[in-house]
Design goal:
mainly alpha, DNA-binding, Endonuclease III, domain 1
Length: 217
DNA sequence: GGCCAGGACACCA
DNA sequence: TGGTGTCATGGC
């Protein structure tokens, strides 16, 4: 199976999934940091807490301080660390650009270099922000993506190899790349939390089932 | 009670 | 370059 075929199967199954959830670009960025190694259901509670307290924006976070943020995002785990990082990231973005829309005007390369220089933003979080919050044509590669690619016979790729394979096969349209990653998240949620080899997987992946005895890398 | 979740980073050899 | 410990809550 190649990427085009995988893409088509997922499109037939899911169509346009409208991923990522969030009402604003800033909410998407905040969610991208909160969801690091954390299930989305826990992130949603933290986002609601921020919203209810008028803290769901870079300016509100930058004006407050890590000590005020941490208790609000408790449900997302690592709350002290994430509180510190949300605070410093918000501050640095606003100091350098003033807003996400102005940061977008700086272009993909500069935005990427800047984001990767911030403490608390690694490869996956950076790509999520570039694609979903800033609308750049970047494909987000997470653990699920590498596992699905591996088990559909595309090989054991690293993040850059996986991206290149996608770009070479389905191009660099921002909305298409958003949707492909979204569909992979849906696939993982729908079929990979029940039992191994359930027989219903649309891409006939034997086992995304996530157990220590079973996982690759 | 144990395992896992859409990671990132510091530290070590 | 690769391995390991740390950060931590909530669902199943």
């Amino acid at each position: 199976m190649d990427i085009s075929e995988l893409h088509q199967i997922l499109l037939n199954k899911y169509g346009d999934v409208g991923w990522w959830p969030g009402d604003s670009d800033e909410e998407i960025l905040i969610g991208a940091i909160l969801t690091q190694n954390t299930s989305w259901s826990n992130v949603e509670k933290a986002i609601n807490m921020l919203k209810m307290n008028g803290m769901l924006s870079l300016s509100a976070i930058a004006k407050s301080g890590p000590g005020r943020i941490a208790p609000l995002i408790r449900s997302s785990g690592y709350y002290n660390q994430k509180g510190m990082r949300l605070f410093s990231i918000s501050k640095e973005i606003l100091e350098k650009y003033g807003s996400l829309s102005k940061m977008r005007l700086a272009g993909l390369e500069e935005a990427e270099n800047f984001l990767m220089s911030l403490k608390g933003i690694g490869r996956e979080t950076c790509d999520s922000i570039l694609n979903y919050a800033l609308d750049f044509p970047v494909f987000v590669v997470d653990k699920y993506t590498l596992r699905i690619f591996s088990r559909t016979g595309l090989g054991d790729l690293n993040i850059d190899e996986a991206k290149d394979l996608v770009y070479g096969s389905i191009g660099k349209d921002t909305e298409t790349l958003k949707n492909l990653h979204g569909m992979i998240v849906f696939l993982a949620k729908d079929y990979c939390k029940t039992k191994p080899d359930c027989g219903n997987c649309p891409v006939n992946v034997k086992c995304l089932y996530f157990l220590k005895s079973n996982r690759d890398q």
